[in-house]
Design goal:
With about 550 residues, this protein is α/β, with parallel strands linked by helices. It has helices spanning about 20-30, 60-65, 75-90, 110-115, 145-160, 180-185, 220-230, 255-265, 280-290, 295-305, 335, 340-355, 355-360, 360-375, 380-395, 415-420, 430-440, 455-465, 485-500, 540-550, and strands at about 45, 140, 170-175, 190-195, 235-240, 270-275, 310-315, 325-330, 410-415, 445, 445-450, 475-480, 510-515, 525-530. The chain has a seven-stranded mixed beta sheet with strand order 2-8-7-6-5-3-4, with helices on both faces. Strands 9-12-11 form a three-stranded antiparallel beta sheet. α2 packs antiparallel against α14 and α3 runs parallel beside α14. The longest helix has 20 residues, at about 380-395. The relative contact order is 0.15.
């Protein structure tokens, strides 16, 4: 599995730093305190730590960025971006493609502004006309998705305080909160509850891959209805994440979204969508959910947006290198429950990030707009999903316990299947050890999204027991769009297969700094200990000792 040659691809040629040895990477890992996020990406062969902002851009996206002009034209591109989102969210198969006018050398800027500021919109549009954004702001362009999450939860908390409500008593419920969404809600005191599909980690037959899909990203509808029936007055918002990154990038059915909308309307609770990968989700719906194969991706995307009161998106996950966007409909449940929320969000946006036309460069705004049109093309979506599927088949055929079927953007390995309880303690964090060894031996970086990232030890310390629903214990290898070839993916699969044959060489990990930090997996410092068998561990974490002590009492 040694990768010592340059691999020429029809996508991107990635030159591999073959002079870097495993010993050298081991030294650098130690100096960066065994945190995968701190490891220099230029010393890797393959980087699967994230697909956010790491994609290869298409030629027409580059063209749009190159033709964006200087900063004086930023308002033109912001107006075109607003139209791009109206095309994506509201117009389905009838986009107006206003961005094309910006490519015209004979463009009259004043006429374009006049047209865009007086554009006809739906009564409950996600993006009010530009002249109306001052009085009724409902669309927010930001540097990235977590900035959207910050102004949403901060504004929601501030609104409740103004109304004399204790927001810490309120619940936000989801099919699976992404880590930054959970962090932004939790830091403001909201109770963040995941109601994941009950079969999300159950086995799936290898022979069915590419033929059917169980849509494991769905929310647990019976549990959601029970929660809303019992506590609807304390539920602030329902958030549907598409695709469900926490649950292995699994898609959500369109029919499920419609059922969640029915519950949302029944109990008068706003329905929000984390739309980071809504285009990929639509591609799964078209291929696998009965009754949708005749529809275009654009139409399915519109039908998904039709179900919700608001959304936010890290556009970096859909053919853009930067950008986040949030929007909500006026005259819907958000106005009913939180009148004036948009003005709070706009104030926070301005105070934290500045004007929309200054928080991002003009070329980036142009690139984001172009990405909205490129990311719904089948010739982009299905090769991406197929690449993930094929490497998933290879790993599964070799016995690697990954979540099946693979999602659209990443491979998720089930840590508990590799390291059963009989071999490792849960708080040995062997998923982190596997990430470290993949970097050291093979120059391949993934990310632990398991018991360390989800802070299981903190829950156990606080409550003296495990949660009723254990968080997933996974390692994610997120595949950047249009970057790697089949040869790259073969190298990845062969490396992971080889490492698991020698899994006892994978070290245990313990936290030495940053245990209590929010989103600690980005900043935590670790130390490693060689695995010497569970009964002969050189250290047992304090949390395990406390649980054992309480059980004995």
């Amino acid at each position: 599995t040694t990768c010592q040659m340059h691999v020429q691809s029809n996508l991107v040629c990635k030159f591999l730093p073959s002079e870097i040895t495993p010993e050298q990477r081991g030294d650098i890992l130690k100096k960066t305190q065994y945190n995968a996020f701190n490891f220099p990406s230029g010393l890797l062969y393959l980087d699967f730590i994230s697909d956010s902002g790491t994609c290869a851009l298409t030629d027409n996206i580059w063209m749009g960025m190159a033709n964006s002009g200087d900063g004086t034209s930023s308002i033109l591109h912001l107006l075109a971006l607003h139209e791009g989102f109206r095309d994506l969210c509201e117009r389905g198969d009838s986009p107006k493609n206003a961005y094309l006018k910006l490519m015209d050398a004979a463009l009259d800027p004043a006429a374009f502004v006049e047209e865009m500021t007086n554009v006809e919109t739906n009564e409950n549009t996600f993006i009010n006309p530009y002249w109306k954004q001052k009085e009724h702001p409902n669309a927010f362009l930001l540097p990235q998705g977590r900035c959207c999450e910050y102004i949403i939860f901060e504004s929601l908390a501030n609104f409740m305080k103004e109304k004399g409500k204790d927001h810490t008593e309120y619940i936000a419920v989801s099919n699976g909160f992404f880590d930054t969404t959970r962090a932004n809600g939790s830091v403001k005191g909201f109770q963040m509850i995941d109601l994941c599909h009950p079969d999300s980690l159950k086995p799936y037959p290898l022979e069915e891959l590419g033929k059917t899909n169980p849509f494991k990203g769905d929310i647990d509808l019976p549990e959601l209805e029970k929660l809303l029936k019992d506590k609807h007055e304390k539920v602030a918002v329902i958030v549907m994440t598409l695709t469900n990154n926490t649950m292995s990038g699994q898609p959500v059915r369109l029919s499920t979204m419609k059922k969640v909308r029915e519950l949302s309307l029944k109990y008068r609770i706003p329905l929000w969508m984390d739309a980071c990968r809504v285009q990929e989700n639509a591609a799964f719906i078209k291929k696998y959910e009965p009754g949708n194969s005749h529809k275009s991706i654009r139409r399915i995307v519109k039908e998904l947006y039709d179900q919700v009161d608001g959304f936010h998106s890290s556009i970096k996950k859909a053919l853009a290198n930067i950008g986040g966007f949030a929007a909500f409909r006026h005259g819907t449940l958000i106005d009913e429950r939180c009148p004036g929320l948009g003005k709070m969000m706009r104030e926070l946006q301005f105070n934290q990030y500045g004007l929309e036309t200054s928080s991002l460069a003009t070329k980036n705004i142009a690139g984001i707009t172009m990405s909205l049109y490129n990311s719904v093309k089948e010739e982009y979506l299905y090769p991406r999903i197929e690449q993930t599927l094929e490497v998933g088949k290879a790993l599964s055929a070799a016995g690697v316990p990954i979540v099946l079927p693979p999602g659209g953007h990443a491979i998720y390995m089930n840590v508990n299947k590799v390291f059963p309880e009989s071999e490792r303690n849960w708080d040995d964090f062997p998923g982190c050890g596997l990430v470290i060894e993949m970097i050291r031996r093979y120059g391949i970086r993934g990310c632990e999204l398991g018991y360390m990232a989800w802070e299981l030890d903190q829950y156990v310390e606080k409550h003296g027991k495990f949660p009723d629903k254990m968080p997933p214990n996974l390692v994610r290898f997120a595949i950047p769009a249009m970057v790697y070839s089949k040869e790259h993916m073969d190298y990845f699969a062969n490396s992971l297969i080889e490492l698991l044959k020698d899994k006892n060489s994978i070290p245990n990990c313990r936290i030495v700094r940053g245990k209590d930090a929010p989103l600690r997996h980005f900043n935590v410092s670790l130390d490693i200990e060689p695995y010497k068998g569970k009964t002969n561990q050189q250290f047992i974490h304090s949390t395990s000792l406390r649980i054992l002590s309480k059980q004995q009492k």
